[in-house]
Structures are given as C-alpha cells and as structure tokens.
Amino acid sequence: MIVILGYKEEEHAKHVAKHLQDIKEEYCFLDTAQYPYDVLFSWKADCENSGSIIIDNKKIDFSDIKSVYWRNFSGIKNETIDDGDNTDFLSNMVYRERESALYSLFYSLKINWVNSINAFELHKKKPYLTNLFKKNNIRVPRTLITNDKDSVLDFFESNNEQIILKPVRGGAYTKKMTKDDFTKQKLSQLIVSPVQFQEYIDGTDIRVYAYQEEIYALEIRTDNIDFRTDGNAELIPIELPEKVKQDCLKVMKICDLKYSGIDIRLNSKNEYVFIEANPAPMFINVEKKTGYPLTQALINILVNH
Ligand SMILES: Nc1ncnc2c1ncn2[C@@H]1O[C@H](COP(=O)(O)OP(=O)(O)OP(=O)(O)O)[C@@H](O)[C@H]1O
Ligand SMILES: [Mg+2]
Asked: What sign for the dihedral angle of Cα 132, 255, 228, 232?
C-alpha cells in the first residue's frame, strides 16, 4: 500500500495515483483535513509500526504501508469546542492534542517517507538551512533576516545596492529592492514581522530534480526575477559539474530529503549559489517540456525503495 498524503483533486497527487494504478500498485489518499472525524487511527507508541489507520472506512495496518508520497499537508482541523468561559482554552487544547498525536505518529512510523515530516518541518526554517549549507561549504547568498529597519540600509549599501527581499518561510514572490523602497512609510512595515533580504544573485535559475543519487538538471531562462511569474520561461536540460552534483547530495542529506527540487542560481562568475531544496516539488510541467522521466523516477523510489 502506498499512501498519498494530499487530496484527490490536486494535480500531482492525482497524477501519481494514476501511475500507481497503471502498475497495479495499491494506494490510498490521506487528507489531513479529514482528521479526526473521518481519519481514525490507533497506535501502540511503545512498539514499532503497531496499529492501523482508517481512511474512507477502510482499515490499513501500518505494517502494510510501503511508502508515503507527501504532496500536501492540508492542516489539522481547528474548531471551536463550546465550553462557556473555557471555550478558547479548550478549543486550543483540542487542537494541540490532535496535532501532537498526528505529528508523533508521523515522526515514529518506520516506512519509506517521501519525504518525512522532519524534512517538511526543516523546510519551514529556511534561514536555518541556509546557515547549515554555509557551514557545509555550500555557496549561498549573503542573507539578512530582520524586522529592524535601520539594518536594511547597511545591508543594501554593503551589497552594492543589489538586494532582493522575500518571505522567511515562503509563499510570496521574490522582489528586487531599489532606493525608492527606502521610504519611512515602507520601512516602518518591517516591525510587523522579520523579512528575508539577500544579496541579488545575477544570472539564471537552475532547477535540479534529485531522487536519491539520480539527478536531472535544467536551466530556466527568463527575464523575470522570480521565474514562477513567467509562464513562457524556457526550460533547457543541462549537465551539472560533478562538484555541484555532490553539493546537491549534501543538501539532500542536510535537509533529510529522499527526493527534491533544488533551486540554484548560476551567476555571471559561473558560481552555483544554492537557494533552497523543496520537499514536494511540482514536476508535471517540467517533465512535459524537458522529456526527463520525472514521474518514473518518483514512482521508482515509492515502489522499489
Ligand atoms: N538571492 C536571490 N537572488 C536572485 N534571485 C533569487 C534570490 N532568491 C530567490 N530568487 C529567485 O526567486 C525564486 C524563489 O525564491 P525561493 O526559492 O527562495 O523562495 P520560494 O520558492 O518562494 O519558496 P517556496 O517554494 O517555499 O514558496 C528563486 O527560484 C529565484 O528565481
Ligand atoms: Mg523556490
């Protein structure tokens, strides 16, 4: 049994399900939004893989799960549990209990997680990963995380006025900063939350799909700062230098990844600068445009690990 963590209508979850069906591999969807009312589990935490989960009224033994393809975590239901004056406290506690039980299970089950909860939790702490990459001699952009407006101008000047800003955790496009951004009004917004500033890496985007040691790389040609804003970006298969391949494998180890879409910038000095390693990258469009066998590579690590 292969568990697809995500929801049935999502493009990549659906795509992987279809390919598993084609090779007659049993699978099911686990949508965390259905938990706890329509996803029930019972687990003996002092034993290895002992227990079962009920999804769509079907009971699955943990020991029968071969792999999990983690595509989307839809969150955990956070609902109001009415208890008079105690409502906020109780609702919050119920949420924490649900989370603690599910997370503990995900951390503990010894199955082939592609990828693990540990990898996803690490990916939420991108500046920490940037720090670990650097400690492992991997080239990363100079990075400042701050909600102190006074430190941004210094960073801007010390990087020849070539910096970008983007969220710490992700979820919004990368923007290049100009002198016009240094108005009192704009900078005062920083107090709300720290932002991630980085030296701007000129050049082009490289995307690497890595399946354990199997690596497929491509260059993304676009004039936009963030390639995702350009639907017509050109995708060109490339071969990476051996050292960069080794750095990709190092990054996968640091991030606890079995499979990843790694974002790199190749600058005009021919340096490969590592931006991030995604634990559940999209690949359908890239496969269509490059001809790389990305679906098969993913299916292989799910089925033949
Ligand atoms: N320091 C930088 N210099 C130049 N371009 C950058 C830099 N950082 C990011 N970019 C561009 O913006 C894109 C998105 O940035 P990044 O991968 O860090 O965040 P993200 O993709 O928004 O995160 P997530 O995928 O988790 O939402 C990169 O792929 C790259 O094209
Ligand atoms: Mg990215």
From this structure: positive
φ/ψ of 7, rounded to 5, equals -120, 150
- Which is the closest atom of ligand 1 to the Cα of 198? 1
Strand partners, 221: 234
Domain annotation for the chain: domains and CATH numbers: 2-114 (no CATH), 142-199 (3.30.1490.20), 203-303 (3.30.470.20)
The structure tokens listed for 288 are 């269509």
Which among 125, 129, 207, 221 is positioned nearest to 167, based on CA atoms?
125
In degrees and rounded to multiples of 5, residue 210 shows phi and psi of: -125, 130
Residue-wise pLDDT for 19-75, tens only, equals 999 999 999 999 999 999 999 999 999 999 999 999 999 999 999 999 999 999 999
**Ligand 1 lined by 196 (C-beta under 6 Å):** no
Probe residue for ligand 1, chosen from 134, 226, 282 as the CB with the greatest number of ligand atoms within 8 Å:
226
Which residue(s) pair with 27 in the sheet? 2
Q: Which of 126, 263, 273 to mutate to test the pocket of ligand 1 (most atoms within 8 A of CB)?
A: 263
Q: Is residue 166 within 6 Å of ligand 1 at its C-beta? A: yes
pLDDT tens digit string along 246-257? Answer: 999 999 999 999
Q: From the CB of 174, is ligand 1 less than 6 Å away? A: yes
b/e string for 209-246 if b means 16 or more Cβ within 10 A? bbbbeebbbbbbebeeeebeeeeebebeeeebeeebbe
- Residue 261: φ, ψ to 5°: -110, 105
